[in-house]
Amino acid sequence: MSQNIPAIPDEFPERRRTGVRRHSLPALFLIMTQERPPAHAGSYYPNDPDSLAASIRSLLSEPEGESQTDLDPETFRAFIVPHGEFLSSGPVAAKAYRLLGKRKKKPERVMIVAPLHDWPEYGLILPTFPSFRIPTGSLPVDRKAIQKLAFFSETVFSDEAHLLEHSIETQLPFLFEIWGPVPIIPLGYADLPSEALAHMMDPFLADPETVVLVSADFSRYFNLLQADRIDRESIARIHSGQSVDPLHVCGATAVNALGSFTRKGTLFPRLLMAANSALATGVEQKTTGYASFGFSG
Length: 297
Description:
- The protein is of the alpha/beta class.
- It contains eleven helices and eleven strands.
- It is globular, with a radius of gyration of 18 Å.
């Protein structure tokens, strides 16, 4: 594998709050010794390796819509993918991963930009784990990319923040199925401005050997009629490069970071699929909306 990592800009918005600690680089490499175990196998997705592989293959084998047969997978730089339970969000996520799986060659790395749901600290939160394990295998962390990101002024290292988080883990079974142990950059964030996140994502979006995944769910805890209206509005805003409401999209910061590239005319969004948890569960109260997008450029 090539060791060429996108160059990180020298200057970043200086917004890091006082009191936030981060490891020095020597300490980082000393403590990168134990892989992250799966935290949500058996709840968000099957725990048994054979059942998980069969589930992913079934989702990926669903027929494509007519509007997607003409899509060139080589032109897509980034995707929005859901991070819900596979029962509800799996078919929506599979639309993106099916397209990714059609690339002529796998990328050298996949950056997963995801919100940390229960982490109170501010910043760009990176783990020190050398790999992330799921029932079907392990995906290595791209340590050279992590080393580059360590110089971002907002960076904080915390394994605790990643240990129980599902927004990154739910992407890994799909990635492992289509590409095996592809190196990943597990990039969590909390209370971070979208402008700062866009500044960091920029060199990776420009790198043809990096695929960027933005992990996001849409409307949450609304009834089906409300959710449908809210999600339609969010989808329209993404298409036009406008910011989405954080109350209506879980992962809005990274979605809005992508939107800044749409406004610049460097990324062009394409809706792949949208759905609601009610379709799978039959429960029309307190639903969750899902959507997957591809961004070409």
